[in-house]
Amino acid sequence: MTDMSHHLIPTLIISGFLGAGKTTLLRELIPGLEAASINPVVILNDYQNAKVDASTLRGEGRTVTPINGNCVCCDSLSELVDTMGALTDRPGQILLIEANGTSDPASLLQHLLFRPELLKRFYPILQVTCVHASRWQKRLWNNELERLQVRTASHLIMTHSDSASEARKQKVLDQIAGLSPRASWSSAEALCEELVHLATAVGPVFTAMPQGSHVGNHHEHHELSHAFVAEQFDLPPRVSKERLLHWVAALPDEILRVKGVARFFETPDTDFVFERTDDHKWGPTAFALKQPSTVPPCVVLIGVRLDSDGIRASLSALTD
Q1: Is the pTM of this model over 0.85?
Q2: I need a surface site. Which of 42, 145, 219, 303 has the fewest CB within 10 A?
Q3: Beta bridge partners of 63
Q4: Which regions of 73-224 does DSSP assign to beta strands (E)?
């Protein structure tokens, strides 16, 4: 019997490979929840750029906690559990946990579902996996990790679908049906409505996790995520936007994700977040922040092998 001495906090784990659209989904969910008078509490886990994403999500009255580290299912698990335990008990809350792009959510679910002290407060626990329509299963040696990320999902959202043909999208649907047959395909709007219902429901709400999900063999596959390396490099106080984005675009393919904060000579009083994913044929992007960033100008690179000295030398050319 679930202990009702605490308000139950529905919890959503947001999973998906690097660049699949997890933070974009958060940006879509948060305003919808707030419009329904629900308080979204956000925990962001990423290699070294969790603070960068947190700075783009913070707003008046929002609780956004960044957790740096390889993943919340192992290296940063204790920090995640401590952060969850420290949350103030009040009605109308939703916990949104964005796992980093190379996490195995099966292990995280296993840790959370087998901790009675957490289930007394955080229930039901759902998992949505963002699936990049055109990049699904084109991750080379990371394809198995991407499959793991959909196997335990209770919900799935197809992202970047505008750039994929109907035949490609159907192929993705067919492949995932065999991996996660009981997961529900959803949208940001529909998922938000479901979360609002859970947060406002009277009494405990029980939502069954998919039966037969792959929740074991963590150590068999999780070394895939631990093969990734992340490193942060400082940027000058101001740089040329054109030169910075050109530098980002020219980084080698071994670098799967680029994200950072910068100020440009062209707009010296505005902070920008810039990024590039492994699907970088469209080039890097940059968008202005409405509020000043709490993170100084920097760039975080994620890849299998990083040539730190070479990267540092090429960055110095930005100030020449």
Answers
A1: no
A2: 219
A3: 41
A4: 93-98, 125-132, 155-159, 184-185
Residue 183 carries which DSSP code?
Answer: P
Tokens of 277: 């994913």
CA-atom Rg of the chain in angstroms: 20
pLDDT in tens, 214-259: 333 444 444 444 455 667 788 999 999 999 999 999 888 777 778 8
CA dihedral 188, 11, 49, 103 (to 10 degrees): -100
Indicate the pairing of strand 184-185 with strand 285-288: unpaired
Residues 6+ apart with CB under 8 A from 212: none
Contact 235, 299 (CB under 8 A): yes
Element (H, E) at 175: helix 166-179
Q: Helices 143-151 and 166-179 sit at what angle, rounded to 10 degrees?
A: 70
How do residues 96-116 score in pLDDT, each as one tens digit?
999 888 888 877 877 777 677
d(CA 173, CA 158): 9
- 309: exposed, middle or buried (Cβ count in 10 Å: 0-12, 13-18, 19+): exposed
Residue with tokens 């009277």: 202
- CA distances to 143, 173, 243 from 184, in Å: 21, 11, 43
Residue pair 124/210 in contact (Cβ under 8 Å)? The answer is no
Nearest to 258 by CA among 43, 5, 91, 49: 49
What CA–CA distance (Å, rounded) separates 117 from 45? Answer: 22
Q: Which long-range contacts (CB under 8 A, 24 or more apart) does 190-198 make?
A: 191/12, 191/29, 191/128, 191/155, 191/157, 192/28, 192/29, 192/32, 192/33, 192/36, 193/32, 195/10, 195/12, 195/29, 195/33, 195/38, 195/94, 196/32, 196/33, 196/36, 196/38, 198/10, 198/94, 198/124
Bridge-based pairing state of the strands 39-46 and 63-68: parallel
